[in-house]
TrEMBL record:
Protein's name according to its UniProt entry: Endopolyphosphatase
Ranges where the Calcineurin-like phosphoesterase domain occurs: 38-296
InterPro entries, per the entry: Calcineurin-like_PHP (IPR004843), Metallo-depent_PP-like (IPR029052)
GO biological process, one term: polyphosphate catabolic process
SUPFAM superfamilies: Metallo-dependent phosphatases
Family annotation (Pfam families): Metallophos
Keyword terms of this UniProt record: Glycoprotein, Hydrolase, Signal
Signal peptide: 1-19
GO cellular component term of the entry, any: extracellular space
An MF annotation (GO) of this entry: endopolyphosphatase activity
């Protein structure tokens, strides 16, 4: 998505072209052994091969200035070596490759699997360089290869579970439900090592699949584009012949299969289900299935929206999931949503949707390490326990040079916050998120609300922290408002 309101199965065996590929996932659950109780969530990479260090922000970081009389004064208006945080620019390939390698070196010996929730291609914002299907395919091939190679492990296969993003298809947002969709056939080839053999037909037909990533843990990778309100080339899920309705039937069967197999499920996709983003009947079906199988679902994990937040959706209280389109009202609208939770008598009707912030440096680049219960003798097996959010301050790293060589120093990631230590969440069950929503909506917890908002924007230096209404004339908020219009 074009900066807006706020999946990977990898690896192993060499091929003739030196790419490290993941062993096909055809193992029964009992043969897949979790080792660590952690998994990585990475999303919205948005690689841009046209990114130029020193280019103007106005050109989407694609072209250097012809004249720059006040270079020192206006240096902040130019693209940084590693990226251009806080701007419309996409991710430099240099930063994407470095980040993937850094994350893998730090975490591949400590995690069980990866979920990768889409949007690997740049946005189509530069009128002078129109984005093509070939270019989009190229980005997905490059990022897939980078992830496979980085997460290759000599002793085991680390599953990487991908999904389609709205910027991974062409045209943008538009994705038809035709048989033998050429784009799905292309992705089925790019991700052939990621998709189990018995799920290939589902992916080639609809762009979704299920995969066992650890003992007793299954991921359902959705094609949210068939539910997406902005995809106007397919009908809503109320039409039984639509690709969305077919997708819902698949999801229903998979959740029933999970009940039969007694496995825990992670539902992941790109576009998060909300009143604003999903077609009405598709959202209703999603909520119905989610509440019916709530005891089987570990969590709902998405990307797309860029802001680090969670939403509460409900069939009977649709306004709970409404967030204002105007970015200047986004935060206050979100808080109103949280305040409504205490008015709901039957909380079993509520679903918590989690949106991870991007690797794209819209604010500062991020990734998320999640933890879950691996004790199969415990009633809490598969329970989502916590996550740690990491970020890298590219504003700082763009300025760092080696003392002797004067070469740029590669960025590192650091902890931004942890849900147990900073939010005081005992676990990440729906009940805990609903309790947290109540706290965020209460006037008695201003300190934690302020922290939540700071994290929502990945601690970028904006003027909204601690305020009730942002100044709509502020240039930062005008920029964010413009980004919202790209999303909706």
């Amino acid at each position: 998505m074009k900066f807006t309101y706020i999946s990977l199965i990898s690896l192993l065996f060499s091929t003739g072209n030196c790419a490290v590929q993941q062993a096909p996932f055809q193992l029964p659950v009992k043969e897949v052994t979790p080792a660590h109780g952690r998994f990585l969530h990475i999303t919205d990479i948005h690689m841009d091969q046209h990114y130029v260090y020193g280019a103007t922000i106005q050109s989407d970081c694609h072209r250097k200035p012809k004249k720059h009389k006040h270079k020192k004064k206006e240096q902040g208006l130019l693209a940084g070596y590693w990226g251009a945080p806080g701007t419309d620019c996409d991710s430099s390939p240099r930063f994407v490759y470095h980040s993937i390698d850094w994350i893998a070196k730090e975490w591949k010996d400590k995690i069980d699997f990866v979920i990768w929730t889409g949007d690997n291609a740049r946005h189509d914002g530069d009128p002078y360089i129109t984005r093509t299907q070939k270019e989009i395919t190229g980005y997905n091939q490059k990022v897939t290869k980078a992830l496979q190679e980085a997460f290759a492990h000599p002793d085991r296969t680390i599953p990487i579970v991908p999904c389609l993003g709205n910027n991974d298809v062409h045209p943008h947002n538009q994705f038809r439900g035709m048989k033998n969709n050429p784009q799905l056939l292309t992705f089925s080839d790019i991700w052939s090592d990621f998709i189990p053999a018995d799920q290939q037909r589902h992916f080639k037909r609809g762009g979704y699949f299920a995969v066992d990533v650890a003992q007793g843990i299954r991921v359902l990778s959705l094609n949210s584009l068939y539910f997406f309100g902005s995809n106007d080339v397919v009908n809503s899920c109320s039409d039984p012949t639509s690709p969305g309705a077919r997708h819902v039937r698949w999801l229903k069967k998979e959740l029933k299969r999970a009940e039969r197999d007694q496995v825990k499920v992670i539902i992941m996709g790109h576009v998060p289900p909300t009143v604003k983003t999903f077609k009405d009947s598709c959202l209703d079906d999603y909520i119905k299935l989610s509440t019916r199988h709530a005891d089987r679902i570990m969590g709902h994990m998405y990307g797309h929206a860029n802001f680090d937040h969670f939403q509460i959706i409900s069939r009977q209280f649709s306004s709970v999931s409404t967030v204002q389109q105007d970015a200047s009202r986004f935060v206050s609208g979100l808080r109103k949503q949280y305040r409504m939770v205490k008015k709901v008598h039957d909380r079993s009707e509520l679903v918590a949707i989690h949106v991870a912030p991007p690797l794209l440096p819209l604010f500062q680049p991020t990734f998320r390490i999640n933890q879950y219960n691996t004790n199969q003798s415990s009633p809490q097996f598969g329970q989502w326990l916590k996550y740690t959010q990491y970020y890298s301050n590219l504003t700082y790293w763009n300025e760092q040079r080696d003392r002797w060589t004067h070469k740029p120093i590669p960025p590192v990631f650091e902890i931004e916050y942890e849900t147990d230590k900073d939010y005081h969440l005992p676990d990440l069950t729906t009940a805990s998120w609903l309790d947290f929503a109540e706290r965020l909506g209460s006037k008695k917890h201003k300190k934690i609300w302020k922290m939540y908002v700071a994290n929502l924007f990945v601690r970028t230096n904006n003027k909204w922290y601690g305020q009730s209404v942002p100044d709509s004339s502020d240039s930062y908020w005008r920029t964010i408002k413009d980004l919202f219009h790209w999303f909706f």
